[in-house]
Amino acid sequence: MKLGNPKLVDRILENALDEDIGPGDLTTSAIVDPEIRGEARLLAKEEVVLAGMEIFSRVFSLLDPGIEVKSKFHDGDVVRDGTSIAQLKGSMRGILSGERTALNFLQHLSGIATLTRAYVEKTNPEVRVIDTRKTTPGLRLLEKYAVRIGGGSNHRFGLFDGILIKDNHIATAGSIARAVERVKAHVPHTVRIEVEVTDTKGLEEAVSAGADAVLLDNMSLEEVKRAVSIAGGRVLLEASGGVTLESIGEIAKTGVDLISVGAITHSARSVDISLEVV
């Protein structure tokens, strides 16, 4: 699975390294002679879905191309607690200076992939679990990649690649119909138009206005079931708002096409993975 634009990825990693190391690693420079080489291992301290192994390796490549990272595991693999994920060889200065930045990315992205997998496993194959724009500023490319690794799907990447008419757009335009009309006058017919609604009346108005998809925002389970019946397959239906691991299974049974979960990016905890010198 492709991560994305390599130049953009490198820019993200270089910014992170610069943030952490700045003009130099004072501790490592004082303790470790530049010619010392050594080995370290990457160890899982809990069961995780790996995401970001390429990122982990690339951090060290940017610091020192001579550092070698070897692993038999790939993104998407489930790694058990206590598993040695990878081995590193090379300059100890480079390994120690890059340790935290590399781990931060791997722990964070694997946390997203692990949580996403948990949500996906609670649903059925007919329903897609999707992310939102509730991501860490500057890390959206990587976080949405981790969602895909966990078995989820991506919603629009940003404001530039999809139409989602939300409550404030509707309030500004005056009505759902008016908002849809204005969008259709300004975007190509190839762009799908999605409208956010909070009740079945809004759903009916969105369908009549020519929406391609409707986001059912914070509706109860019974309201979602009724919305599915009213829509009758005429539009794509997305359930959203307050979705939890406990509730997603029942939501999936209603017949919606998509369930968006902001928590898989904004609330995923970093998993426990450590780097140990051997």
Mean pLDDT: 97
Structural class: alpha/beta
The largest β sheet comes out as: 6 strands, parallel
CATH topology of the largest domain: TIM Barrel
Number of strands: 12
Q: How many angstroms does the end-to-end distance come to?
A: 32 Å
Strand percent estimate: 15-25%
Give the ordered list of helices and strands: HHEEHEEEHEHEHHEHEHEHEHE
Q: Let me know the CATH homologous superfamily of the largest domain.
A: Aldolase class I
Helix content: 40-55%
Q: What's the overall geometry?
A: elongated
Count of individual helical segments:
11
Question: Any overview of this molecule?
Answer:
- Strand 8, helix 8 and strand 9 (213-217) form a beta-alpha-beta unit.
- Helix 8 (200-209) runs parallel beside helix 9 (221-231).
- The strands form three sheets. Strands 6-11-10-9-8-7 form a six-stranded parallel β-sheet. A four-stranded antiparallel β-sheet has the order 3-5-1-12, with helices on one face.
- It has helices spanning 6-21, 26-31, 53-63, 92-121, 140-149, 167-173, 176-184, 200-209, 221-231, 248-252, 263-266, and strands spanning 37-44, 48-49, 68-70, 78-79, 84-91, 128-130, 163-165, 193-197, 213-217, 236-240, 258-260, 273-277.
- Helix content is 43%, strand content 19%.
- The longest helix has 30 residues, at 92-121.
- The chain folds into two domains: 6-119 and 269-277, Aldehyde Oxidoreductase, domain 3; 122-266, Aldolase class I (TIM Barrel), CATH 3.20.20.
- It starts with 5 loop residues before the first helix and ends with a strand.
- The radius of gyration is 23 Å and the shape is elongated.
- The protein has eleven helices and twelve strands.
- The chain is an alpha/beta fold and 278 residues long.
